[in-house]
Amino acid sequence: MERMKKHILSVAGNLLAILTSLIVMIPMIVVVLTSFKSSGEANNMSLTLPKKWMFENYAIVIEQGKLISSFLNGLIYATFSVLIIILVVSAAAFVISRNFKGINKFIYYFIIAGIAMPINNVALMKVMQALHLVNQRYGIILLYAAINIPLSLFLCYGFISTIPREIDEAAVIDGCTPTRLFTRIILPLLKPIISTLFVLNFMAVWNDFTMPLYYLNNSKKWPMTLAVYNFFGAFENSWNLVSADIVLTLLPVLLIFILGQKYIVGGVSAGAVKG
Amino acid sequence: MNRKKLYPWYFTIGALVIFLLLCFLPGLIGILYSFTDWNNFTSEVNFVGLKNYKEVFAGNSEYTKYIVNTIVFTVVTTIMKTVAGLALALLLTQKFIKFKTFHRMVIFSPQVMSYLVVGLVFKSMLHPTTGFVNNFLRSIGLGSLARNWLTDLKLVFPTVMAVDTWKGMGYIMVVIIAGVLSISPDYYEAASIDGASFWQKFRSITLPLLKPIIVNVTVLNVTYGLRVFDMIYSLTNGGPGNATGVINTAVYKEFSKGNFAMGTTLSSILFLFVLCLLYFIIKSMENKEVDL
């Protein structure tokens, strides 16, 4: 009897797990299948294989949706803002965690409060205008750096606190200047956290679409997300093309997710990670 | 050794300046401008006192609806994600489940997708005539359950919150799994010897030991829910009417109408509200028990 009960429980548990996974996967599978269908077939979304595989859908989307330029834009924004974040955050986290008192302590809490605080996008427009950052590629890059600094600092600070201070002392006795100590000794030790920051911030920037919506009104400078949204508005009834567009937008992040899984889960477990 | 010399203050300047200019300053300026009639039609900006705030909180304005919606969205999605995440974490740490890692990865995967893409995917899935959900219901003979998911006034908000849970629960699950795995199996063994049932173990061991993590994910979900924008913008754009409008979609609406003062007032209300919670938020972040 007891064994029977256990058996039923294990079957039910496995079924529940499979069902949940299906609920998560089915929308994505439907989108991938639809992206290869003809427009007539796509009008009735279902879990069936396309009668004829229309690979040309992708060619149409890439051309009509101006995807190559928006792909490059997204890549530029993500890469450069992540590099800025890594540079300024690792330097700040190093000094703050080594000397956590007075002004440094204040700076730390001041910045990490930004993890929770909402951005006032209307007033930000005013500031961006004053700094001549609106509608500029470097403007959006700096903005992405700014909004992702708080969480990155929090994660990086936590990591540097685990590196023993004796290392610094030994380096200084050997005649290291602070800059040399940081670039030659500390930075190489930060590889794991830098990888985490790279993956998390790259995905956050790639996936964002609020900032270009507010601050980029030139379609030549749009990243993938905004290009897709615009494409959706123009081709709302061609689900096959919209689906192909969605798949192309997803591919880069899914690739990074699969390659950088270790770092994502590492960052997630470290506590607060949310875009 | 001189710490001030070894760890020079100017190392913090890059992060500080960028954050100060583009995150903190707009928040501050925004509050100042919320007392004016700043708009896109005249270059003149006049002080109007509390007029904007009065307009927001006066009786049955559309703005109170946005604030109520934001709170409902935050409370409901926080509860749904925490319950779903906790249940899935407990399920996917049981010995008898096969392919645990695969399930965890699949359920986590929506987290890496853009909110915009999730919104568009579900917009197509939930389309009343051509969408997958209604087609599927019809094909299994449950056509009577087919609904206008995103246009029916009664259904649209629950639908949006369900989609948000679909995206967010995997993340919460992964965080809680890390917590569950850090609980020493000795506790459960001892409890089993004493003849404790599954529920007794859950209530007396798992839940109390997971408390810090549950507080942590609750804080995350609350701060996310209060600031939600992308998901709602891409799914319904606040509609139909303003049935799903929240503070941040309203801010964008006022912004594109050129009504900057109202946009910044709504944003400032959110800002001040989160500021009141900030102490608890930072406390809970620092009490985290899971390590990298």
Features:
A: mainly alpha; MetI-like fold; globular; B: 292 residues; mainly alpha; 13 helices; 68% helix; 0% strand
Number of helices of chain A: 14
What is the third-level CATH name, the topology of the largest domain in chain B? MetI-like fold
Please outline the major beta sheet of chain B. Answer: none
Q: How many strand units of chain A?
A: 0
CATH architecture of the largest domain in chain B: Orthogonal Bundle
Distance between the termini of chain A: 49 Å
Largest sheet features of chain A: none
Strand content of chain B: under 5%
Helix content of chain A: over 70%
Secondary-structure-derived class of chain A: mainly alpha
Q: How many beta-strand elements of chain B? A: 0
Write the CATH fold name of the largest domain in chain A.
MetI-like fold
- Classify the oligomer: heterodimer
Mean pLDDT of chain A: 87
The succession of helices and strands of chain A, N to C, reads HHHHHHHHHHHHHH
CATH architecture grouping of the largest domain in chain A: Orthogonal Bundle
The greatest interface between two protein chains, and residues involved on each side, is: A-B, 114 and 99 residues
Question: Could you give me the name of the CATH homologous superfamily of the largest domain in chain A?
Answer: MetI-like
* End-to-end Cα distance of chain B: 30 Å
Description of the molecule:
The complex is a heterodimer of chains A (275) and B (292). Chain A contains 14 helices and no strands. The N and C termini of chain A lie far apart (49 Å). With 275 residues, chain A is mainly α. Chain A folds into 2 domains: 2-57, no CATH class; 61-269, MetI-like (MetI-like fold). Chain B has 292 residues and is mostly helical. Chain B contains 13 helices and no strands. In chain B, α4 (62-91) runs parallel beside α8, α4 packs antiparallel against α10 (198-227) and α12 (247-257) runs antiparallel to α13. The two termini of chain B are 30 Å apart. At the A-B interface, α1, α4, α5, α6 and α7 of A face α1, α2, α5, α6 and α7 of B.
